[in-house]
Specification:
Elements: H1 4-19, E1 22-28, H2 34-39, E2 51-58, H3 65-79, E3 87-92, H4 98-105, E4 109-113, H5 116-136
Parallel strand pairs: 2-3
Antiparallel strand pairs: 1-2, 1-4
Helix pairs in contact: 4-5
Length: about 140
């Protein structure tokens, strides 16, 4: 059963992503299973000494590097308290290599999507990038 405070935490997460122009967010890595629990307001009994990887994809990727850094820092600062006691490690997936994108979008947990179509198109791009990389690397 979810109390109103728990529902608000999830809604706050979605609202903050939407406000910054984020189209997709994925939990991935060693803490991907604990992240949704924390977002739902559940208590995670044992928190290992590792961080929570959260990968995000912009609806429209900012070209300006300074603006990109500002958005990343603002997002990390406002989202980190939602996942305490885990340390948040925010990654801008479009800035990462194909392995990181694959780990997030294909092996991770989708935490937020502005639409199923946007998610499907991004995953298609990730599959293509990953396949291209593996086609020439032994």
């Amino acid at each position: 059963m979810t109390n109103p405070g728990q529902r608000n935490r999830r809604e706050e997460f979605f609202a903050k992503l939407k406000a910054q122009g984020i189209g997709l967010a994925y939990f991935f890595g060693s803490q991907q299973e604990n992240a949704p629990l924390l977002l739902n307001g559940e208590i995670v009994s044992e928190i290992p000494d590792s961080d929570l990887d959260l990968g995000v994809v912009f609806l429209e990727h900012p070209i300006d590097y300074r603006r990109l850094r500002e958005i990343r820092q603002k997002l990390e600062d406002c989202l980190a308290p939602l996942f305490a006691p885990l340390r948040l490690h925010l990654l801008l997936l479009e800035e990462e290599n194909s392995h990181v994108q694959h780990a997030a979008a294909i092996k991770g947990i989708e935490a937020y999507a502005v639409s199923p179509e946007f998610a499907r198109e991004y995953r298609r791009k990730v599959y293509a990038l990953y396949a291209d990389w593996h086609s020439w690397w032994p």
